[in-house]
Every structure is written in structure tokens, then in C-alpha cells.
TrEMBL record:
Name of the molecule in the record: CRP-like cAMP-binding protein
Superkingdom of source: Bacteria
Source organism of this protein record: Xanthobacter flavus
InterPro entries in UniProt: cNMP-bd_dom (IPR000595), cNMP-bd_dom_sf (IPR018490), Env_Response_Regulators (IPR050397), HTH_CRP (IPR012318), RmlC-like_jellyroll (IPR014710), WH-like_DNA-bd_sf (IPR036388), WH_DNA-bd_sf (IPR036390)
One GO CC annotation: cytosol
Keyword Transcription regulation: yes
Every HTH crp-type domain range: 164-237
């Protein structure tokens, strides 16, 4: 992600590959949803963390311990293949947590996570978290709700990778970004967040060069403009029509 993100209405929504119609608005944060008394209990158990842009939260294969609630900032979770190639699973923002599925600790991380901008986090260690969930039932319910939400997100991600061509995935991603981060502009729909071609490529399982070529083609056809990482969808209907023949590319 570029550093100069434009503030939009949907910045708390996750960024991931999914059908553009899929609602991905988050539920209330694990901590925000609690009473003041329960929040104090949870924070007493946790430890505040701060990460700079680019600083890793955890690495793939490291020992798993507890969960981390994002209080401000943005965390990218991604899988590193044996070849070294990375594929982005999601960008998570304020209110979401990272560190599942082994929320109580144990095993190793199946993927990595890194701060994409300065982030303030609340680390809830696995040791004692099970007992804390018994003590604060609303926390336990929140963890279940969040895991269901993540399962829905990752199921959509897997379905897209398995059933859509890479060209279709790019169109679906652009539609999803327009729905989630779209701001009405005199020219069309401004995607109010800055992405590099490498960012988009990692989200759809393609190369940066391929994404550059495809966006260049769409720009020549007048479907969108893409300057300095800021994209405007000029013709949403024409973008939607790309799905009908994107599988041929």
C-alpha cells in the first residue's frame, strides 16, 4: 500500500479478493463492543503494541500465541510460497484482529503479518485467554463472531482463486474496491485508497507486469484512470462488462 492513503468512508473494511457484492463490513471490535468494566478487565490482560510501517507483527512458521486487536492502523496478512512468492490474504484495519485460528495459542503461524502503516495494537496473550473468555462472556461471543467473519472472508477468497480466471479476479477486485472505498467524483468513482500495481498483483495471484498491462489497456479503453496510485473508475458499467469476456484473456 502507498503511504498517502486518501481517507474514505470504508477504511475499516478489510481489503481482500471477494465477489464485489459480498458485504464485508466488520462487526464491532472485540474490545469496543464490551462494557467499560469488561474493557478494563481485557486491557489488564493485554499489552499495547506499536508497529512502524513495514515492521513485522509475526512471521510464517513462528510459534503462535494469542491474538492481536487492531486499535489503529492497518495490518497485511500474507502467505509466502516455497518459491518466495507472496500472495496477500487480506488487509485488516481498525476493529479487526489478527492471529487466528489458534486464538488460545499453540502451533505455528500459517502465514505472516506486517504493518502497512503505523499501527497501535492490543496483544491478548494465549496464556489465560481461555479463562478470560469465561470471565467475560461478551469477549467469547466476539471471538466467535470474528472467526465466523474471517471464515466467510477466506472462503470467498478461496472460491475466487479456484473458479475465476486471473483477468476476472482483477475485475472483481476493482469492483470490490470501488464498492468499499468508492467516493463519488465528477469523473466517476474515485477509489479512496492508494494501491501500487504490486499490491493489486499480490491480491489476485498475478505478476506486477501483468497488472500493469491490463490496467493500461483499461485506461486506453476509457474505463478507468490510474495516476500516482489513485484510481478513478470512469465507466462502472464497462468495467462490469469485462467479466463476460475476461475469462478469455
Amino acid at each position: 500500500m502507498a503511504k498517502d492513503d486518501v481517507e474514505g468512508e470504508g477504511l475499516d473494511a478489510p481489503i481482500l479478493l471477494a465477489e464485489w457484492e459480498m458485504p464485508l463490513r466488520r462487526e464491532a471490535s472485540l474490545i469496543e463492543r464490551l462494557s467499560e468494566v469488561d474493557q478494563a478487565i481485557v486491557r489488564q490482560h493485554g499489552h499495547e503494541m506499536r508497529l512502524a510501517t513495514g515492521e513485522p507483527l509475526f512471521r510464517q512458521g513462528e510459534r503462535h500465541d494469542g491474538i492481536v486487536v487492531i486499535e489503529d492502523g492497518q495490518i497485511r496478512s500474507f502467505y509466502v510460497a516455497p518459491s518466495g512468492r507472496e500472495i496477500t490474504l487480506a488487509y485488516w484495519s481498525k476493529g479487526h484482529f489478527v492471529g487466528g485460528p489458534d486464538v488460545f495459542g499453540g502451533g505455528t503461524h500459517m502465514w505472516a503479518a506486517t504493518a502497512m502503516r503505523p499501527s497501535r495494537l492490543m496483544f491478548l496473550p494465549g496464556a489465560g485467554l481461555r479463562q478470560l473468555a469465561r470471565q467475560v462472556p461478551d469477549l467469547a461471543i466476539g471471538i466467535i463472531d470474528a472467526l465466523v467473519f474471517k471464515a466467510r472472508c477466506y472462503s470467498a477468497f478461496a472460491q475466487m482463486l479456484g473458479t475465476r480466471s486471473v483477468a476476472q479476479r482483477l475485475v472483481q477486485l476493482l469492483q470490490h474496491l470501488a464498492q468499499t472505498y468508492g467516493v463519488k467524483d465528477e469523473r466517476g468513482i474515485l477509489i479512496a485508497a492508494a494501491f501500487t500495481h504490486a499490491d493489486l498483483a499480490a491480491l489476485i495471484g498475478a505478476t506486477r507486469q501483468w497488472v500493469t498491462v491490463q490496467l493500461g489497456r483499461m485506461q486506453q479503453e476509457g474505463i478507468l484512470t490510474n495516476r500516482r496510485g489513485l484510481m478513478v473508475i470512469l465507466k462502472p458499467e464497462a468495467l462490469a462488462a469485462q467479466l463476460e469476456h475476461a475469462g478469455e484473456r
